[in-house]
Amino acid sequence: MVDPVWEHGEKRGSGFKCKYCGTSKSGGGATRFKDHLAHRGHDVIDCPSVPPAVKNFFISELDKIKAKKYERQQDRRRRDAAARSTQYVDLEGEEEEEEQDDELQQALRHSREEYEFRQRAGPRYERGGGSGSGQARDPGTGVTIPTGRDIDGKYLSENVEEIKKEINKWKQEFPEYGATIICDSWTGISRNSVINFLVYCNGMMYFWKSIDVTGKIQDHRLILKEITIVLNDIGPEDVIQIVTDNGSNFKKACKLLAEEYPHIVWQPCLAHTINLILKDIGKWDDHKAMIQSAQYICQWLYNSNSVHSMFKSATGGELVKWNATRFGTNYMFLESFMKKKDQFMVWMMSTEYRSSRHYKTEAGKYAFECMTSVQWWANMQYVINDVEPLYSFLRFADQDKTPTLGEVLMEYGSLKRTYHTRFHSDMARCDRIMEIVDRRLASVFEENVFGDLRKGLERLFDIDRAARALQENTTSSDSS
């Protein structure tokens, strides 16, 4: 049921706009709007133009809400008092109203158990409730609400100590299963840079620490220094693998580390490596031109509210936006464009668009020329076809369930077969794509444990080698 307060204003997200005085508030919802109209509350200004009848109505509504809240609090206090009482009501011998008595007995028992649990748990116990309730929950008699100093002080310290105990217990598994250090750098929109370290062992992963490297040169020396510190904290003899992205700084640092500790294997992140492959392909002239053209049109679509409204109404949805550092999203963006091809062409030729002022702008004319051109859409499909198998490979590498080494090699083989089948009539383009793929994946497949596994699988599935071995075996049997 819609709250009657919205007949007197407009709901804007979690806030409101009053139709009488035009006052807007970004939060507070229906409750604050009623306070505004009834001239109640301290967190909202009074409406100077509300009609008296409307004001009196919402004064009455707020009084009813307050009365119901008071009744709930009184009922809760009565239940808590009954739960604390040592004299329990025994209704088993009563013959009348047995069903109602059983329900009452069960309610009293439940209330007593809940009260005892809250007493044992202390102030950290919270009864719950949605974040939209807008009111603080009454914790009950005998339960003290913790202050901000408590939460940020002793309770936080207690949680830290609990996590430390768990980690110390978990570290006892390092010698048996071996530990993997995972390292990744991150730069936010405010240009702050951090390097995060995580440790994995026996199916569990913990955040180890984070380092602020804002303003520092993240060369291989800095990376090597910080990884070495974490390595010494854990114990070099218990670390078997280090996983990082495939950046040149991480690559060089981990190679130097492997020289000092030969038992430690460096494993570059497969998803990041595939992302770099897409970056290299995205530098091709035809790919670069198509991505820039589509991005220019997209910026025009979203820079004007009226154009965006027309576009959304005509196509029935939004476009997938690209990310500057995740190059696979460029092709996700093009694919979302391609899925709306028919709707875009119909919209561009519609009277609504061609009679609008946007059609006469430079960007509007450019969008019209591109999206009504069959060749422009064909070029987009051509670019998407180049990377579609790679994008499937990226989804495989970036899934929640971490793939095994064997699964990665099998997926790589499937990728090669897909490209050879798709471009059987244009092997030059297939070879150009696979040259980039193999060059980037060389660090994944050749310079670590992947290399030995790959050679073993290639020998296992090498038909020519198997045929020669079979022939040699047959010849040897005949000779004997």
Helix share bin: 55-70%
Order of neighbouring strands in the sheet with most strands: 6-5-4-7-8
Count of individual domains = 4
Listing every helix as H and every strand as E from the N terminus to the C terminus, the arrangement reads EEEHHHHHEEEHEHEHHHHHHHHHHHH
Query: Globular, elongated, flat, extended or rod-shaped: what is the shape?
Result: flat
Largest sheet: 5 strands, mixed
Strand content: 5-15%
The count of DSSP E runs of length 2 or more, i.e. the number of strands, is 8
Characteristic terms for this protein:
about 475 residues, alpha/beta, Nucleotidyltransferase, domain 5, 4 domains, five-stranded mixed beta sheet, three-stranded antiparallel beta sheet, 8 strands, flat
Question: What does this protein structure show overall?
Answer:
The chain has helices at residues 29-38, 52-84, 98-121, 148-171, 174-177, 220-234, 248-260, 270-281, 285-303, 305-315, 328-339, 341-349, 351-354, 362-371, 374-397, 405-422, 427-445, 449-460, 463-479; strands at 9-12, 15-18, 24-25, 179-187, 193-201, 204-212, 239-244, 265-268. With 480 residues, it is of the alpha/beta class. It has four domains: 4-83, no CATH class; 85-124; 169-268, Nucleotidyltransferase, domain 5, CATH 3.30.420.10; 278-447, no CATH class. The strands form two sheets. The protein has a five-stranded mixed sheet. Strands 1-2-3 form a three-stranded antiparallel sheet, covered by helices on one side. Helix 6 packs across helix 7, helix 11 crosses helix 15 and helix 15 (374-397) runs antiparallel to helix 16. It starts with 8 loop residues before the first strand and ends with a helix. The relative contact order is 0.04.
